[in-house]
Amino acid sequence: PAEYPVGKYLITFDPLDGSSNIDVNVSVGTIFSILRCPENIERPTTADFLQPGTKQICAGYCLYGSATMMVLTMGNGVNGYTLDKDIGAFILTHPDMRIPESTNEFSINMSNMRHWEKPVKKYINECLQGKEGVRGKDFNMRWVASMVADVHRLLVRGGIFLYPYDAKAAAKGMGGKLRLIYEANPISFIVEQAGGLASTGRERIMDITPSELHQRIPVVMGSREEVQYVTDLHKA
Questions:
Q1: Cα distance between residue 5 and residue 22, in whole Å
Q2: What are phi and psi of 97, to 5 degrees?
Q3: Do the domain assignments include residue 21?
């Protein structure tokens, strides 16, 4: 509002990630990101928000599940806080969260398999072959349909989360499913600060300069070894 002074920061957020889960009482969340407001700006415009993810100074999410948690990074690692309702404050319960480098869990919407590009189909088929296949180990699939919940799981015990580019997105003229500025970038910042990788399959997510506020991109993120493996398949 014009009557208030202009601050130094810009905030983007997704207020309710996984909203389709509300009716069935499954975990949902909120995602947020903080950027510096460019200097000498009296009133920020949309263009001021079009900054690559590397410009974020803080990012986090709140997860509303069996407990209410806030996971936060300010560029120096990742910490998790749990809401203590008795005192009305978030308590540090998960200090220095780190994603295991290797994993045997993947998270993807399998109903879209027929629409995926060949590298993603190849990767998932290899996972499904288990220890008898080229990967030499069994994989489990997990899918909550809430990015916050799926990513929180891989932060705690490892895994890879994929929402890849597919024929459905191409037919609609979209670059992917998830929004770059207020979904992919803040979660990528958290994942990288926890030791993981975050990619579109072809490039690092946080290196992308947004072209519009609601730009969509494909997402592959999580345990370092698996994300690198999927990226290499796209390059092959």
A1: 37
A2: -70, 135
A3: yes
In sequence order, what E strands does 89-167 have?
A: 89-94, 105-107, 140-141, 160-163
Judged by DSSP in three states, 95 sits in coil
Is the residue at 206 inside a domain? yes
| Mean pLDDT, the chain, integer | 96
pLDDT in tens, 20-59: 888 998 999 999 999 999 998 888 999 999 999 999 999 9
- What is the spatial distance between Cα 188 and Cα 56, in angstroms, rounded to a whole number? 11
Question: Between β-strands 89-94 and 105-107, what pairing exists: parallel, antiparallel or unpaired?
Answer: unpaired
CATH, residue 141: 3.40.190.80
Report the C-alpha gap between 77 and 91 in whole angstroms. Answer: 17
In a domain, 164, yes or no: yes
In a domain, 42, yes or no: yes
Nearest to 63 by CA among 150, 190, 149, 143: 149
DSSP letter, residue 194: T
Q: How far is it, in rounded angstroms, from Cα 44 to Cα 47? A: 8
At residue 5 the predicted structure's pLDDT band, cuts being 50, 70 and 90, is: confident
Q: Are residues 40 and 90 in the same domain?
A: yes
CB 178 within 8 A of CB 165: no
Domain that holds residue 43: 9-94
What pTM did the predictor assign?
0.96
Q: For 112-164, how does the pLDDT look when each residue is reduced to its tens digit (9 = 90+)?
A: 999 999 999 999 999 999 999 999 999 999 999 999 999 999 999 999 999 99
